[in-house]
Amino acid sequence: MSLLESLIQVSEKAANIARVCRQNEHLFKLLIQEKSEEEKNPRFVEDFKTLADVLIQETIKHDIGNKHEELREHIKGEESNVFKNTVGESVVVQVQEDEYSTASLLNTVLNGDTRAAELLAREVHRNVSVEDINLPSPFVPVDLELPLDDLGIWIDPIDSTAEYISGGQVPTTVRDIHASGLSCVTVLIGVYNRLTGEPVIGIVNQPFYSVHNARWCGRCVWGFSYNGVNHYSIPELPENPEVQKVIVLSSADSAVLKNHFTTAGYTLVEAAGAGYKCLCVALGSADAYLLSKGTTFRWDTCGPHALLLALGGGIVSYTQAQKGELDSISYAEDGNAVKEDIAEWCNWDGIVAYRNEEFLVELIEVLRDTV
Ligand code: 2IP
Ligand code: CA
Fold first, then answer.
1. Which of the residues 50, 108, 161, 267 is marked catalytic?
2. Ligand 2 centre from 78 Cα, in Å?
3. Are β-strands 90-92 and 151-159 bridged in parallel, bridged antiparallel, or unpaired?
4. HSE of 224 in the Cβ direction (CA atoms, 13 Å)?
5. pLDDT digit string (tens) for 219-251?
6. pLDDT per residue as tens digits for the range 306-327
């Protein structure tokens, strides 16, 4: 099976785990529970949402590492898989060879909640086929010439964790953009070239896209860009949208920036989730995503970046764009990087995500006046 197909497949497994934690009553109670003071001294588990995040990440690592051995040592994610309790014991959350063994390990971390452990292990070991996945177009295997030995993977198991916990749906009036809620939750997987720093494959899986028969259904989009060859699976762009020049941004971004672009005639829409905002740009629901602050990390941008590259767009540094320079976010690995320090993986200079180069050029002219 090709790397692309395995990635699409495991992103759906990840989405299944995310969905079951919200749709199964037993798991949902664990997900939303606030820890009481007494419970803050548990045998294990900082909280269930962290476990869900870690389990998704480990499932991706396990499945991809098993199918593509060259990559095994180069798969990184946002979360640490070591769970510690207050008396210094620790458990490493890792997917085991079979469902029974995974359930048994999860049982320890869940302090003996066998039911929860079994429900999660079932999803982790469930077989998923690409035919079962809601892709914009049926998956056709493509022959991709890739230097597998040079690649690395960044995973954000659940982007927009806050929306994942709070739930709901908050649409806006602009195109089909959601301001917050479950639509803004995404599973992000990005493959990059460790030597050149360029993103190569991006998968953005949106586990809570629509509701059918009172169940959430997701959708998955992907893009591939390497050596001038681009493939992607993205629906057609909306034709002549009513609102033009749409920029998505974080509600936490600067008021000065927001005023500047509003005055320049752009329509600004605040939406949650770095991955979701990039997805809006890829789908043409927004024309760009601006972020003036260092609040995203490589795991937030790598997958969406590859997707946008495949579409002829990209993600560049915000502060460089302010100076009129196009400086693509790089995923290259500096041998000296302290891996435990997440600051190493921050996109400190902010980002500009775009799909259309002409739009970017126009945007940069407006951005230059903000310096
Ligand atoms: C977050 C998440 C937030 C986003 C932030 C990311 O990742 O995507 O929603 O902030 O930049 O790091 P905002 O919504 O203001 O854009 P996570 O949920 O994985 O911590
Ligand atoms: Ca994130």
1. 161
2. 8
3. unpaired
4. 18
5. 999 999 999 999 999 988 877 777 889 999 999
6. 999 999 999 999 999 999 999 9
Q: Which residues of the chain have pLDDT under 70?
A: 34-46, 85-88, 334-340
User: Could you count the other beta carbons within 10 Å of the beta carbon of residue 314?
Assistant: 22
Q: How far, in Å, are 43, 50, 101, 116 from residue 110 at the CA level?
A: 9, 12, 14, 8
Classify 5 as helix, strand or coil.
helix
CA contacts within 13 A on the Cβ side of 154: 34
Active site residue 149: no
**pTM strictly above 0.90:** yes
% residues pLDDT > 90 (the chain):
75
Q: Which of 54, 57, 160 to probe ligand 1 with, by most ligand atoms within 8 A of CB?
A: 160
**DSSP symbols for 69-91:** GGGGGGEEESS--EEE-TTS-EE
Task: Say how many C-beta atoms besides its own lie within 10 A of residue 315's C-beta.
Answer: 27
- Ramachandran category for residue 318: left, alpha or beta (phi over 0 → left; psi -120 to 50 → alpha): alpha
Tokens 């586990």, located at residue: 207
Rounded to a whole number of angstroms, the distance between the first and last alpha carbons of the chain is: 49
Contact 106, 120 (CB under 8 A): yes
CA dihedral over 329, 335, 336, 341, signed as positive or negative: positive
Q: How far is the C-alpha of 241 from the C-alpha of 223, rounded, in Å? A: 24
Measured CA to CA in angstroms, residue 33 lies from 48, 114, 361 at distances of: 8, 18, 47
At residue 187's C-alpha, the angle toward residues 4 and 56, to 5°, is 90
Alpha helix segments (H runs only) across the chain: 3-23, 25-32, 48-67, 99-109, 114-125, 161-166, 255-263, 274-283, 298-310, 318-322, 357-368
List, in sequence order, every residue forming a beta bridge with 106; answer none if it has no partner: none
Cα radius of gyration (the chain): 20
